[in-house]
What we know:
Blueprint: H1 10-17, E1 30-32, E2 42-45, H2 58-63, E3 68-71, E4 82-84, H3 88-100, E5 107-111, H4 116-131, E6 134-136, H5 144-152, E7 160-164, H6 172-180, E8 184-187, H7 195-198, H8 201-208, H9 210-218, E9 222-225, H10 229-238, E10 247-251, E11 260-264, E12 268-273, E13 276-281, H11 287-300, H12 307-314, E14 325-328, E15 334-338, H13 344-355, E16 363-368, H14 377-382, H15 384-391, E17 395-399, H16 403-412, E18 418-421, H17 424-431, E19 440-444, H18 452-462
Parallel strand pairs: 1-2, 2-3, 3-4, 5-7, 5-8, 6-7, 8-9, 9-10, 10-11, 15-19, 16-17, 16-19, 17-18
Antiparallel strand pairs: 11-12, 12-13, 14-15
Helix pairs in contact: 3-5, 4-11, 4-12, 5-6, 13-15, 17-18
Amino acid sequence: xxxxxxxxxxxxxxxxxxxxxxxxxxxxxxxxxxxxxxxxxxxxxxxxxxxxxxxxxxxxxxxxxxxxxxxxxxxxxxxxxxxxxxxxxxxxxxxxxxxxxxxxxxxxxxxxxxxxxxxxxxxxxxxxxxxxxxxxxxxxxxxxxxxxxxxxxxxxxxxxxxxxxxxxxxxxxxxxxxxxxxxxxxxxxxxxxxxxxxxxxxxxxxxxxxxxxxxxxxxxxxxxxxxxxxxxxxxxxxxxxxxxxxxxxxxxxxxxxxxxxxxxxxxxxxxxxxxxxxxxxxxxxxxxxxxxxxxxxxxxxxxxxxxxxxxxxxxxxxxxxxxxxxxxxxxxxxxxxxxxxxxxxxxxxxxxxxxxxxxxxxxxxxxxxxxxxxxxxxxxxxxxxxxxxxxxxxxxxxxxxxxxxxxxxxxxxxxxxxxxxxxxxxxxxxxxxxxxxxxxxxxxxxxxxxxxxxxxxxxxxxxx
Length: 464
């Protein structure tokens, strides 16, 4: 059921933000931070971003029909339509929280160090098999602004919401949970993430597990990955405090004794629970994505989806941009584009995927820096050498200042086949002629390394 007696007006904007009323009461048709998307009757919220300052576009917002603007800067000439607040980011989050509370539908929080975006996409697709229309986070808009914008996209037709939550500092999870007010929680996996602020893997895991603490405190259902060591420790400590049926566990390892066991069958996954089982085609290759699918199916069990509903929902799955995009080209070459993000856990999984077929053709790992790994970033880059050696990946193309550490580690171990480049252009010009029909290429790096530039150039050449 959806409660939709609440509608935005200028009075309700002032009331929600605790501000004195300075405008006549007028309907507000929507709330946006993009001046290009402003429509008549909208509230425009001017946000200072990393590359653009929304305050610059306030005149354009009014020209497009905005009825009011939230701003951190007073208007140069008195204009009651410019509503000044200490922080427009805090203001839009407050508005998003009020809007969210007008909906009485399932809200699933997807948290974790890796696998969040893919698990979110899989979960929302599966749930569509039951609910029809499911709101989900677009891309990876999982930060303080992104979560608020996602909630503000809720519409009366939505019957469930899958919200991805990302953290990059201590205390961030608690703030996100207070805003989202989830009804269900799923934690994918812990691991190294944003260590420039979270400092250690242990602290990062502790902050992710605040989502489970929240679920325990509020009696919320939670999907528990008991194959993750930090999650497993939380589970062993808190399991007795949960009510029967509040948690469903899952794992790909039979020895974990999970409620839902995933059995990887190289392209399909069999999921076995007590008195229930299903075999599904995995829409993305790699055992790490089979694990993501297992998590999403486990979550769906809280809602009693039938096998038919699960399969029907999964049939509409589309991967998020930059997440394990597999291109099989006419000459037999396979290119894996995984350029949205990179950290030690996701890189190890991607290298496993690259090496998995073992078809005798050359394997090329094209790797950009892993960012935001804190004071141990050199260690994390150097340790990739042992994984490359173990998997027999002999053609290694490196880009970025941090990847020089990996190059030095590879050279020191006497492993041939690694080259480092100072620019995308130099990397591309050397890589193109080195690829033969039937080769497999992985292109991966953190978002800031813009490895999609390499992917695009390679695809353009191989498709000619």
